[in-house]
Amino acid sequence: MRLSARIKCFKYLVYAYVILISICGGAQLVIGAFLLWTHKQYAPIVKNQFWEPFAVLIGLGIISQALCYLGWTSTSRKQRCYLGLFCAFLVLFIVILFLVSGWSVATKAHLIVPAEVAIETSFTEFLAKDNTNDQTHIWNRLQRDFRCCGYNGIHDYKKNKQMGFPWSCYDPIDTKVFNTGCMHVFVKSIEMNMIRVAVVAVASALIQSLGIFCAIQLTMLLRRPTLMLPNGDNNHSVRVKRTRELTPLSPVTIGNPTPHSSTKPPIPLKPVVPRVDQPVMKSSH
């Protein structure tokens, strides 16, 4: 396969690879924004903690779109320097995705104790201020949306005889009281969101590492020096150059040197002496 054909083939492969990176980056943006928005609705219960992995996932999605712009422009213009920079940034970006995945799993493993303490403090304040009838209070929204009641269960309201069960603890369909405590349900929800961040980061890293060979190969192909003709045929230009180098000098070429020829003075031609035949003597009889 000719060099120009190989460059063209890998060029379109890199285009497809950049589109794939853009799709992964868009998925990171959408999923990260959705998880952050869901967490922010009940973040005051946990003292506005554990939102960092979702924000980092959004930031990685934005960075991936910037990498797509760099890869697309450097490929279309065949700029080897920027294409190599794109490959280096892409390798670093994939490593960061794996690190974010590990960090999210580690955060999940260490959030139970601080989350339990924050939830218990928030529930104590909720009971102390007697906001059980406030339909817009965050604890009433939490109990309604997560179908839970109290910190550990309905016994948290039974301890206070003057306070009944709030409306958010009742199932609107069969009017039964939810038995599950909100602490367990809410902490489990945060842990699942952390796992989602880890899965998205690992999946994006694996998908984006599929075509990095194509980008590296195109960078190596653009490294080879070629001579371009107006028709864009690299091999033909090389053949023309070799043909001109092997052509012997003619008197016209010597008299009119081309701009690419040597600057040495032309070699003078030796004079040629004409050959004179001796006359033939005929004998007479």
Automatic annotation (TrEMBL):
Species, as recorded: Anopheles merus (Mosquito)
Topological type in the membrane: Multi-pass membrane protein
Record has Transmembrane as a keyword: yes
Protein name, UniProt field: Tetraspanin
Compartments in which it is found: Membrane
Region (Disordered): 249-285
Record carries keyword Kinase: no
Pfam families: Tetraspanin
CDD domains: tetraspanin_LEL (cd03127)
Transmembrane segments: 12-38, 50-70, 82-106, 194-218
Gene3D superfamilies for the chain: Tetraspanin
Chief place where the protein resides: membrane
GO cellular component, as recorded: plasma membrane
Polar residues bias locations: 253-264
Keyword list, A-Z: Membrane, Transmembrane, Transmembrane helix
